[in-house]
Write a structure and sequence with these properties.
Strand content: under 5%
Number of helices: 9
CATH topology: Vanadium-containing Chloroperoxidase, domain 1
CATH architecture: Up-down Bundle
Number of domains: 1
Distance between the termini: 43 Å
Largest sheet: none
Structural class: mainly alpha
CATH class: Mainly Alpha
Low-confidence stretches: 1-8
Amino acid sequence: MSDAPHPGPRLPPERRLAALLAARATPRRSVAAKALEELGRVDVAVYRAIAGTPTPTLDGPLRRLSGLANHSKLWLGVAAALFALGGRRGRHAAATGVLAIGINSAVVNLPMKLASRRDRPDRQAAGVPDERHVPMPTSTSFPSGHSASAFAFAAAVTGSMPALGAPLRGLAAAVAFSRVHTGVHYPGDVVVGAAVGTTIGETTALATRAVRQRLARG
């Protein structure tokens, strides 16, 4: 994906969509445009509130968790453990989870990020403490790939091993929050990423289950 500079700062996707709706104004579109602009302001306000809230006890663990999720290392490690220790169901769950991560990456990290082109937050201006900093990615901000991969894996594995649903989704939520806490994503990025990832994970689980059932019937 190209990271070539573009002329001037890009508006967040919700503000660009709001401008598009306003340009084709009807009463219904006008309300939608105003709602999108307000959501954009809330998104930035929540980001700044998190940045300005002192959390010295959480800063180190969340920074490390965010780094551990780079390139889905955390989820591939969980998949390896499930494959080795979980028996037949664990192997199915691990394979489905890794497949969901692959599909998610193809959907989120290429077309969705290229379409949105949302700039990363300015964490220096927002006052994100240095103790929280992780390397700022060069990719665009919307949606959060870390959040999408986390929830895709959790949803896919849960389809085979429902007992793991709560702990995996909780860990996925912690990873998603860590991306805002470290200043590399707006809250809206991770919310949409989580929703997209969950949809991909659940769809992958359903599809692989149907294939296994068809193969079992011969």
